[in-house]
Write a structure and sequence with these properties.
heterodimer, A: alpha+beta, Aldehyde Oxidoreductase, domain 4, 5-stranded mixed sheet, 19 helices, globular, disordered N terminus, B: alpha+beta, Ubiquitin-like (UB roll), DNA polymerase, domain 1, 6 helices
Chain lengths: 734, 161
């Protein structure tokens, strides 16, 4: 099928209403820059495109999943380009080396890194383009560039009256050559950064016009659904394919690596056909674990193996001998699903010249590897078009749903959209791992003299490296993919970053204690896992900050004063702690029938302290109020910071109150929102977010709200009824 | 079966299995993608539309039950090019994060205000409790709805003064 690429792409007009132009990339070549006389488009760099029609396009290399990159990153480039952010049209980036996240050397959006890693490069890109426009205008007017200034998309003449729009200057600006570095504007001159402004995607998302993956529509498109083995490792023995193929609208029924695909002309017909599908599964190699077995295996591993030392200071053994008492506790956390409101989906089209994929993905370069694995194509033959994401939370860093859509499309030969049901999305998620923590502390009087933390459980890179390592070396031949994956693991710290996913939030233990021993016992029960909003911090935060609360009570001290004394050397921790206690009026009496809990936790470079006010009403835990102080350095958009912190708090509370995926003989027991509930409007606590004014470099906000709220709630319940809960989710009748 | 229904003011006729959920008819047959699929079981509210003036979960409403009915979706909520006051409030308050649930949230809120122009906080919370938001935009939703309620009552008072 001959396909005019440009026409083809028009079909996929983005939410902005503009063309999602995929720049064709031969091999690993980068984005072409320069001026295109036919179209009047000037690309000064990989991010900006200014046109003779006075339009400004910005290629957004960090996907928009609700965390605010669409507005935040556009604001960064707008500030230095000297144009209102509202006049810039963002569009989602194709896969190209320029768009990699420098921290991971992969084109992925995660780890609350978007603003931190874009802060310098995007402002610099904006400043350089602006400077070239100013130089071009100065040349036209025959004046000094230093006497011209740029403002609101125009260059203004030294006389202060004449001006030229950027669009008038693009052709000339493209010929200018910059010498030396361009100074970035000081904070005092910012017009857009740190100012309260609207969200650039709010209109599209309030009118139903934002295009998510599930909304992609292509001519001649069909629909696919996939039945996956109910137990991981199950294989298809037999299917009643002929019977199902005869059903109305069904185009094909076939086996793929991940299960059995049904393709039909309409989604509902595909689902009905799937209902009629009878699969005889062979479970001889399948997982048969139940959740209890997982924790038994963790306890056995913890007994056998003290674990690799991840941090050691002083001598915890001597502290135990010399202290007057030792406190021990074991904490456990369940598997958690992501439950993005947009279920997993992807659309793929295999043609003679390659494959095109449309998907809500956090890692399009890994998506190419996933699609390449199940076709005869190489990554360069595969184009990924990213859409808006109906939630990510780490789930869409793993590309299994693209792999499936590619496998189906490869066989069908016309555009096919594969949509997961909610039940499939819940049961075949890759989970936040279940974890176990063994904590020990020694005290002498009220003094905490030793801290021991043994983390027991898997690490995520073991699962993630399969597609991540090849994505780092897209020129490597495909037969190398699995080798690259294992080399990545063996050469951890060299070929791939050290995997902190199990230990982050534990090894940074911030309190001043002379003897510290932190270990990780690495054990993996074989249940698929991936990144989940705040990752290791989500479980280590609960263990560390609950145990700190236990120790405060053991020492007979107020939990605030106890922490304060031990964190006095960390000014940013101390500030958020003091602020939140003041805001929550910690010293005053608690309302009748309620109690307060406190937690202090740094993650993704951001300092967060929270006070939770909770009680038990009609046999259920009720959270009334969460007060939160946060220090995330400089703020690009205060409203988005508040939103992310509040959203993180509700995400954490959902986990604390309800979050639990259980397995029974290898089968996941939960399926939809009735048995995997999310916090609802009527349960919402009042949330107060207090942001520390700062001139430090910006740090993440998407995730840091999550970890502290879980222990803060548990600590409040202990204050309420004296019952210490060491496993999640929390119970009203513990 | 042949099914006729009015969608956003337009008469639409189609030939389709009567058990097809209204959601997929709207999205895939009529091209109205603003209504979202979230759970398929009426638990999350992302697919909320108005059928004969009542909010329904279109994922669990067979199209045959909507036959002859009057359906309004997020695309038809405003009047012509003018947005519904709630949509303006949603933009002003920057409610959406990922945005996926917001069509359903707005449709639930619109029904509330159509039936009760001056709801209390408790009434708003009760009306919005069937709509899940995974991002946690609940407080902005309440603020946006209350701003429309306040504008409406200010307008009424202004007219009286």
């Amino acid at each position: 099928m001959a396909m005019n690429r440009r026409n083809f792409l028009k079909v996929s007009a983005g939410a902005s209403g503009s063309l999602m132009v995929s720049v064709t990339l031969p091999g690993c070549a980068g984005i072409q820059t320069g001026y295109e006389p036919d179209t009047g488009e000037w690309r000064p760099d990989a991010w900006l495109e200014l046109t003779a029609d006075d339009e400004v396009f910005f290629t957004l290399a960090r996907v928009e999943m609700g965390q605010g990159t669409y507005t935040g990153l556009t604001t960064l480039i707008a500030e230095e380009l000297e144009i209102q952010p509202e006049r810039i049209t963002p569009r989602f980036a194709p896969v190209a080396p320029e768009y990699r996240n420098p921290l991971y050397k992969l084109q992925l959006t995660g780890g609350s890194t978007s603003v931190a890693t874009s802060w310098e490069p995007l402002r610099t890109a904006g400043a350089e383009a602006r400077q070239m426009l100013v130089m071009a205008a100065a040349r036209v007017w025959n004046v000094e560039a230093t006497e011209c200034r740029a403002s609101e998309g125009r260059v203004v003449h030294p006389n202060g009256i004449d001006s030229m729009a950027y669009g008038q200057l693009v052709e000339l600006a493209a010929k200018e050559v910059l010498r030396g570095d361009i100074a970035l504007k000081p904070q005092s001159e910012w017009k857009y950064i740190g100012k309260q402004r609207g969200k650039l995607d709010a209109r599209a998302k309030s009118t139903g016009t934002a295009v998510y993956g599930i909304d992609v529509d292509l001519p001649d498109m069909v629909y696919g659904v996939v039945s996956r083995p109910p137990r991981r490792g199950g294989r298809v023995r037999d299917i009643n394919a002929d019977q199902v193929r005869a059903m109305t609208g069904v185009l094909d029924v076939f086996e793929i690596e991940r299960g059995v695909a049904v393709v039909a002309d309409k989604y509902w017909r595909a689902r009905k056909a799937q209902d009629a599908l009878k699969i005889d599964w062979d479970f001889s190699d399948a997982v048969s674990l139940s959740t209890g077995d997982v924790f038994d295996s963790y306890r056995a591993a913890a007994d056998d193996d003290p674990g690799e030392s991840e941090r050691s200071e002083g001598s915890f053994a001597s502290a135990m001998e010399e202290g007057d008492r030792v406190v021990e506790a074991e904490y456990a956390q369940p598997y958690l699903a992501h439950a993005t409101l947009e279920p997993m989906n992807a659309t793929a089209w295999y043609r003679e010249d390659g494959m095109e994929v449309w998907a809500p993905t956090q890692a399009p370069d890994l998506g190419r590897i996933a699609a390449a694995r199940v076709t005869n194509l190489g990554p360069d033959d595969i184009t990924i078009n990213t859409t808006f994401l109906g939630g990510g939370f780490g789930r869409r860093l793993t590309q299994d749903y693209i792999e499936e859509a590619a496998a189906v499309a490869y066989r069908v030969g016309r555009p096919v959209k594969v949509i997961w049901s909610r039940e499939e999305d819940t049961r075949h998620d890759l989970y936040r791992p279940a974890m176990l923590h063994r904590m020990k502390a020694s005290l002498s009087g009220a003094e905490l003299t030793g801290w021991h933390h043994q983390i027991v459980g898997p690490q995520i890179l073991d699962w993630y490296v399969r597609n991540a390592a090849p994505a780092q070396y897209p020129w490597a031949p495909k037969f190398m993919y699995d080798t690259l994956g294992s080399v990545g693991l063996m050469a951890e710290g060299i070929a791939t970053p050290k995997d902190h996913s199990a230990i982050e939030g534990a090894i940074e233990y911030p309190y001043r204690v002379p003897n510290i021993d932190i270990r990780h016992t690495h054990t993996d029960p074989g249940i698929p896992i991936t990144w989940w909003r705040s990752v290791g911090f989500s479980h280590n935060g609960f263990a560390v900050e609950t145990f700190m609360d236990e120790l405060a009570h053991e020492a007979g001290e107020d939990p605030y004063q106890f922490r304060r004394r031990l964190i006095a050397h960390e000014p940013r921790h101390l500030e958020v702690l003091d602020r939140v206690v003041k805001l929550a009026d910690w010293q005053s009496p608690v309302p009748e029938g309620r109690a307060w809990g406190l937690a202090l936790f740094r993650s993704f470079g951001t300092y967060v302290a929270q006070v939770v006010e909770a009680g038990i009403e009609n046999g259920a835990i009720r959270v009334y109020k969460v007060t939160c102080s946060v220090d995330c350095g400089q703020v690009v958009n205060p409203r988005i910071v508040e939103d992310q912190i509040e959203g993180g708090i509700l995400f954490g509370l959902t986990a604390a109150l309800y979050g639990e995926i259980t397995l029974e003989n290898g089968e996941v027991q939960q399926s939809n929102f009735h048995d995997y509930p999310l916090m609802r409007q009527y349960e919402r606590p009042e949330v107060l977010v207090d942001i520390v004014a700062s001139s430090e470099s910006p740090t993440g906000v998407g995730e840091p709200g999550v970890p502290p709220v879980i222990p803060a709630l548990g600590n409040a319940l202990f204050a309420l009824n004296g019952k210490r809960q060491r496993s999640l989710p929390l119970k009203a009748n513990a | 079966m042949a099914v006729s229904l009015t969608v956003n003011g337009d008469e639409r006729s189609l030939n389709i299995e009567g058990d097809t959920p209204l959601l997929w008819v709207l999205r895939d047959e009529l091209g109205l993608k603003g209504t979202k699929f979230g759970c398929g079981a009426g638990l999350c509210g992302a697919c909320t539309v108005h059928l004969n003036g009542q909010p329904v979960r279109s994922c669990s409403t067979p199209v045959e039950m909507a036959a002859g009915g009057d359906v309004v979706t997020i695309e038809g909520l405003g009047e012509g090019s003018r947005l519904h006051a709630l949509q303006d409030a949603w933009i002003e308050h920057g409610v959406p994060q990922c945005g996926y649930c917001q069509s359903g949230q707005i449709m639930s809120a619109a029904h509330l205000l159509a039936s009760n122009p001056a709801p209390s906080r408790e009434e708003i919370v009760a009306a919005m409790t069937g709509n899940l938001c995974r991002c946690g935009t609940y407080s902005r939703i309440i603020a946006a709805v209350e701003s429309v309620v306040a504008d409406t009552s200010d307008g009424a008072q202004g007219g009286a003064a």
